[in-house]
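A reminder from the course coordinator: this example appears on the midterm review sheet, so study it carefully.

Given structure:
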């Protein structure tokens, strides 16, 4: 009997010392008898090596909040380093008791679609790198540590919520998250880290918090969907190639191409009276033939005297210049934008074509739409958006416009005594829709063919017809 007990004790000790812990319900754990906690670990006795390993988890796995071993209960509080590296799971459920996720814990993992753990305190380096199926991440307020490259190349990631207390994001944190269209950065942030948003190809806009003082190298390079970038007034340093890119980004070597590859970028706004210290190549890959720089009026000449700015933009203009007021022009819509004057209590925006007024909007001094009126007999939808960042600006979406048409607009701001103290006038032209053909000859009026969503329509003057002759408007 004593011999059997000794043999049993040796066996238990050997299991406890085994590199990948003990198997409970098909999942391996490292058990801590002092804290009664368990850490999920990898299922084989050698550390997994990306991109493949002879043994890893697969199928659908649910991690419980408590596991029992030898009649002892352990709370599952951590996912260990490389625990699910390269795993090919169909589904994974994690308990809310998880507080720590180790380095490379889910590296190249397939199966996890969201991360919402309310007690999570730390995420290790590369923890979710190459997780191609994760779509939503919620990082709780209790987080204390975020690792570099934590979500790099999570190509399905569309939403990430960050805690209010965060002062920075690690290097490469969201590098090449190519489905991420927008992100709200905490007001407490003080700098944008190296390659933090590089190659976020779908990122359409980003509001940099007012407390940010530094934009590090390559922070937004390869963000090819950005149409404008606003840099707040407290920034004092701008690093190398913070925006722009190559026709294919990340650049893979060979001869350096001349084109930027960031075709949608039209404007950069820097709300700094004193120009930030700027790397010579900060805007190297910005397309100089298209992109304009807007700065405070009193600083235009100073910015023009600095090569890092003057050599890389189509021009340098003051905030409020006509040229800055129309963005995102399409075949049927445009955004009229302006920087508010603190003394204006009401703005009236009018839109004309061929000398005829077609629309009028009234906006109060806080950016709230008070009224809208359309002066043409057509269906119209409009929206008013305001972005309250360090550089507040108002955005009015004017829709249901005609393709390939010149429009004039005016913005008139009045003070509380009804005197005009802000006035801007300008012109823009809508584009032609995809599939628009050259005009067909006609004696009476222009006739065009247009393809919309795969359907052929006839545009005759200001009327649209189906190919069977039915008038649409």
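Designed residues:
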């Amino acid at each position: 009997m004593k011999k059997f007990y000794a043999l049993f004790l040796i066996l238990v000790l050997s299991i406890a010392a085994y590199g990948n812990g003990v198997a409970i319900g098909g999942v391996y754990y490292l058990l801590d008898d002092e804290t009664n906690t368990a850490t999920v670990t990898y299922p084989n006795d050698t550390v997994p090596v990306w991109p493949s390993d002879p043994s890893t988890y697969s199928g659908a796995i649910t991690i419980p909040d408590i596991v029992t071993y030898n009649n002892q209960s352990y709370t599952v509080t951590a996912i260990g380093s490389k625990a699910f590296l390269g795993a090919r799971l169909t589904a994974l459920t994690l308990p809310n008791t998880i507080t720590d996720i180790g380095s490379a814990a889910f590296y190249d993992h397939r199966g996890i679609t969201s991360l919402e753990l309310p007690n999570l305190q730390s995420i290790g380096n590369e923890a979710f790198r190459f997780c191609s199926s994760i779509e939503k991440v919620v990082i709780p307020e209790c987080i204390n540590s975020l690792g570099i490259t934590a979500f790099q190349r999570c190509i399905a990631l569309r939403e990430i919520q960050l805690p209010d207390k965060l002062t920075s994001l690690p290097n490469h944190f969201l590098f090449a998250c190519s489905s991420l269209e927008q992100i709200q950065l905490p007001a407490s942030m003080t700098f944008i880290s190296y390659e933090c948003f590089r190659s976020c190809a779908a990122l359409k806009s980003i509001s940099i918090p007012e407390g940010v003082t530094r934009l590090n190298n390559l922070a937004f390079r390869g963000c090819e969907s950005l149409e404008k970038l606003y840099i707040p007034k407290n920034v004092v340093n701008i690093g190398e190639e913070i925006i722009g890119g190559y026709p294919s980004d990340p650049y893979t070597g060979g001869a350096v191409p001349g084109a930027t590859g960031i075709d949608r970028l039209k404007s950069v706004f820097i709300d700094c009276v004193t120009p930030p210290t700027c790397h010579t190549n900060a805007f190297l890959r910005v397309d100089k033939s298209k992109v304009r720089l807007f700065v405070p009026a009193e600083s235009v000449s100073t910015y023009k005297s600095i090569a890092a700015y003057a050599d890389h933009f189509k021009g340098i203009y003051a905030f409020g210049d006509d040229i800055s007021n129309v963005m995102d022009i399409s075949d049927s819509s445009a955004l009229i934008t302006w920087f508010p004057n603190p003394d204006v209590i009401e703005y009236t925006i009018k839109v004309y074509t061929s000398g005829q007024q077609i629309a009028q909007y009234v906006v109060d001094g806080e950016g709230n739409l008070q009224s809208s009126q359309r002066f043409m007999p057509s269906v119209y939808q409009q929206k008013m958006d305001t972005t309250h960042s360090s550089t507040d600006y108002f955005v009015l979406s004017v829709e249901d416009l005609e393709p390939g048409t010149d429009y004039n607009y005016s913005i008139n701001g009045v003070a509380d005594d009804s005197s005009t103290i802000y006035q801007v006038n300008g012109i823009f032209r809508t584009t032609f829709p995809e599939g628009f053909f050259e005009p067909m000859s006609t004696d009476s009026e222009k006739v065009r063919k247009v393809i919309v969503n795969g359907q052929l329509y006839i545009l005759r003057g200001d009327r649209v017809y189906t190919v069977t002759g039915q008038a649409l408007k």
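Residues 414 and 420 are 4 Å apart (CA to CA). The chain has four domains: 19-161, 206-319, 324-429, 434-473.
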